[in-house]
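Summary of Year 1 activities. Much of the first year was spent building the evaluation harness for sequence design. The harness presents a backbone, in tokenized form, and records the residue chosen at every position. We chose the following record to illustrate the format because it has been used consistently in internal testing since the harness was completed.
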């Protein structure tokens, strides 16, 4: 039986499509209460229900977060005040644990899932590069089999392979990265299944679990590495 969240998704896509064409306070303010009732409130409930599913699948408690609609304009040349997509995230543990997060996004035209780490801090970056150097073949195979692709988020990759790794390293592209996350579309035909959006998200996330488990285990295993890192 459908859980009713498909209607929220449809409303969100229509709303954010209009917002993209009218990204001003004058347009948004008269529609703010409707957005909070018809989109934000059910989105928060959806995030809580999916958190329960992810916690069950991973064995780790996950906390949901629905991102606010207001953009942070402090360091951006783009001064449009509102985000034109609905996004939510699920995280577990402390950020220092390097645990990948799951996310779900609704744009005017797409619905997508993701899993990964948005940005590696210096020590984490050392662990990540050591992992790629040792386990790159396995990581590449997991990415290829995930049904998704590497997401374009976080810091820009380096232009060159960082020292001390060889410039012709077989996984040079992965070594250049300062973040790693996968993105995949919501599974096709989920509406026809009749199980609802919570089940569709859970099914999509299930396909990302091997990638998440691999990162969690391998990044935790590489707490020390002899190479000096050039960022």
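For this record, the design step produced the sequence shown next.
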């Amino acid at each position: 039986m459908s859980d009713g969240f498909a209607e929220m998704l449809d409303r969100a896509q229509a709303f954010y499509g209009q917002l993209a064409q009218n990204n001003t306070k004058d347009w948004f303010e008269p529609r703010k209460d409707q957005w909070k009732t018809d989109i934000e409130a059910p989105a928060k409930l959806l995030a809580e229900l999916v958190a329960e599913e992810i916690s069950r699948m991973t064995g780790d408690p996950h906390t949901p977060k629905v991102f606010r609609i207001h953009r942070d304009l402090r360091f951006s040349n783009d001064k449009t005040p509102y985000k034109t997509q609905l996004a939510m995230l699920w995280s577990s543990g402390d950020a220092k644990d390097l645990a990948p997060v799951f996310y779900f996004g609704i744009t005017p035209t797409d619905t997508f899932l993701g899993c990964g780490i948005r940005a590696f801090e210096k020590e984490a970056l050392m662990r990540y590069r050591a992992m790629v150097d040792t386990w790159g073949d396995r990581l590449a195979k997991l990415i290829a089999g995930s049904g998704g692709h590497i997401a374009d988020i976080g810091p820009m990759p380096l232009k060159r392979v960082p020292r001390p790794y060889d410039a012709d390293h077989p996984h040079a592209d992965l070594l250049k990265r300062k973040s790693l996350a996968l993105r995949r579309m919501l599974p096709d035909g989920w509406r026809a299944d009749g199980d609802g959006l919570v089940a569709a998200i859970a099914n999509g996330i299930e396909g990302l679990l091997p990638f998440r488990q691999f990162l969690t285990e391998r990044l935790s295993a590489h707490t020390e590495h002899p190479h000096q890192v050039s960022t």
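Residues 222-231 have pLDDT under 50 and may be disordered. Quantitative recovery figures across the full test set are reported in Table 2.
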